[in-house]
Amino acid sequence: MKGSKKKLIFIALSIICPFLLQTLKVKAGSFGAEIFCTMRDGGNDHESSWNAAYTYIKKQKGGLFKVSPINAASQITETVIREGEKLSYCIEYLDNLHPNRKLIRDLEKEEKRKEKEAKERENKRKKLEQELKENNVEFIDEPLDRYSY
User: Fold this and answer.
1) 68-84 b/e with 16+ CB inside 10 Å = b?
2) How many CB atoms lie within 10 A of CB 97?
3) What is the DSSP letter of 145?
4) What is the pTM of this model?
5) Each residue of 50-61: b (16+ CB within 10 Å) or e?
């Protein structure tokens, strides 16, 4: 009888605990978003607002693993989008949470442009080699003396 009660309690806790942890995570992200948005709307700069929200989200998460800044920014973004009516004034501040996206896009465009130029150069080189083979032009290895007539 005692063994079965322990098993039932263990099973009940294993079912309930994930829901409780998920609820805490959602509440932490939600209130973290409110902190961020309220501070930004109040005139605070991005850095202080972000630090306050991120510190709150880290503290509320607990556990073995810490929340990464990218994950916290995503939680804030998701909350602002999900609660659009309530936090609509905060949408203009979301771009500051992901500042490197434009830089990453620009770097990717530059990389693609360089690859395209390299392919074009390679194609031109191959085309010239093909033309030389077709015309059967041979170059003399000896230097030309410009004064010999």
Assistant:
1) eeeebbebbbebbeeee
2) 21
3) -
4) 0.49
5) bebbbebbbeeb
**35 contact partners, CB below 8 Å, separation of at least 6:** 49, 52, 53, 56
**CA 40 to chain centroid:** 22
Return d(Cα 32, Cα 38) in angstroms, integer.
10
Instruction: Measure the N-to-C terminal CA separation of the chain; round to a whole number of Å.
Output: 116
The CA distance from 29 to 71, in Å, is 10
- Cα separation, 91 vs 31, whole angstroms: 16
- Residue 16 has what pLDDT? 58
Residue with tokens 């004034």: 89
Tokens of 84: 């659009």
Predicted confidence (pLDDT) per residue in 16-46, tens digit: 555 444 444 445 567 788 988 888 888 888 8
What tokens does 83 get?
């609660």
Q: CB–CB of 83/31 below 8 Å?
A: no
Which alpha helices (H) appear in the chain, and where do they start and end? 2-41, 46-61, 69-82, 100-135
